[in-house]
Amino acid sequence: MRIGKFAVVGLIGLAITEILLFVLTDFFGIFYILSDLMALEVSVVNNFLIHERWTFGDREKKDSRIRRLIKYNLISLTGMVINAIFLFAFTEFLGIYYLISNILAAFIVFNWNYFVNIKKTWKYSKSFKISNLPKNPMVSIVIPTYNENENIRELVQEIFRVLDKGKMRGEIIVVDDNSPDGTWKTVKDMGKKFNVKLIKRKGKLGLSSATVEGFRKAEGHILGVMDADFSHPPEKILDILKPINENLTDISVGSRYVKGGKTKGWPFRRKVISKIAGMLAKPITGMKDPMSGFFFFRREVIKDIALKPEGYKIGLEIFVKGRHSRITEIPFTFSERRHGKSKLNLNEDINYLKHLIKLYWYKVNR
Predict the structure, then answer these.
(1) How far, in whole angstroms, is CA 340 from its chain's centroid?
(2) Mean pLDDT for the chain?
(3) Is the Cα torsion angle 42, 37, 122, 313 positive or negative in sign?
(4) What is the Cα–Cα distance from 100 to 86, expressed in whole angstroms?
(5) Where is average pLDDT lowest: 228-242, 250-264, 281-295, 336-350?
(6) How many CB atoms lie within 10 A of CB 335?
(7) Pairing relationship of beta strands 138-145 and 333-335 according to DSSP bridges
(8) Are the CB atoms for 142 and 211 separated by under 8 Å?
């Protein structure tokens, strides 16, 4: 746990500062302000060396050690100034007892030091060399289903019509959670005519886990995910695949919130919830529509990545954890389902928030 290591090193530095301050002042008779500055600098250098070997020992280091030390020093110095400002503000303007104010200020400075250092001093490098696709790549589209019998036959036919139009090889992997309406039976029957694989599970185990299971059985160079209810229009598949096929991006996402994208048939409340959910995820993805469930990506993106999604946003898990250098968002119109009822409910919203917390924690400790 990287942030925990950072905190431990900070405590070590505090202990060193206190000991040196006492020794330099009481035993060597150095003026306490000068002693404090000397002790702080020794502490900063000591902390830096421990971070180099322990906290951030696994990070690829592009700058020289001297440059990293200078950056760490400057960030630490700025943190001291911030600490003094907040200590004064909390005590003088808010009337908080100065010792409590110091604890609050120290917490703010700890976060400053940690997050600025992981951005500037020991920056995480997410540049992955992913080989170009073959001339005629195969695409595997994973479709999780539960009670989608009214949609699945028409959807499969439409997807293969689109792929044939684009002269692309493709397969569909339907992962069905033992639908009571017999969805899996329809899919099994369609496998006689189309390149469709069926994974029938014992019960309703969730969309994200179904998708991950589908990835394991997929054979394509490109993997994709879409809903079974026509909210993700099959006719947009080629547009979303294009930047991947041209080796311009690693992940291509159907986006409702870039220019040209929109939602159709949503009530105001659902639009607001979707926007808020997207805003919560934007800091860890940088995307305009991190909630999208309509996306394609190169197979290498999830190579050796432990996908452990909670809830229904498998895309968010891949956008955060995946081995990619670039994500491209392609506009599309999200429509309400043609048949059947939505599976979204309050429990799924709670699962999304739990999933989001885990992904933030993952980013913090990466």
Answers:
(1) 31
(2) 91
(3) positive
(4) 11
(5) 336-350
(6) 16
(7) unpaired
(8) yes
If phi > 0 it is left, if psi is from -120 to 50 it is alpha, else beta; for residue 334 that is beta
- DSSP codes, 45-58: HHHHHHIIIIITTT
- Token pair, residue 70, equals 């200078």
Kindly indicate the confidence band of residue 346, based on its pLDDT and cuts at 50, 70 and 90: low
Classify residue 166 by its DSSP letter: T
The Cα 251–Cα 244 span in angstroms is 7
DSSP code at position 232:
S
Element (H, E) at 331: strand 327-331
Q: Which DSSP category does 140 fall into?
A: E
Q: What is the pLDDT of residues 123-165, one digit of tens each?
A: 876 656 667 898 889 999 999 999 999 999 999 999 999 999 9
* Joined tokens for residue 179: 């639908």
| Alpha helices (H) along the chain | 2-22, 32-50, 65-88, 98-120, 149-165, 183-190, 207-217, 237-245, 268-285, 314-321, 346-364
Bridge-partner residues for 139, per DSSP?
Answer: 170, 222
Structure tokens at 29: 């008779």
Closest CA to 169 of 219, 215, 131, 213: 219
- Judging by DSSP bridges, how do beta strands 138-145 and 222-225 pair with one another? parallel
User: Phi and psi (nearest 5°) for 252?
Assistant: -125, 125
Answer whether 0.90 is exceeded by the pTM: no
Tell me the C-alpha distance between 173 and 187, whole Å.
Answer: 10
Cβ(178)–Cβ(154) below 8 Å: no
- Best CA proximity match to 312, nearest among 266, 280, 344: 344
pLDDT band at 98, cuts 50/70/90? Answer: confident
Amino acid 19 reads I
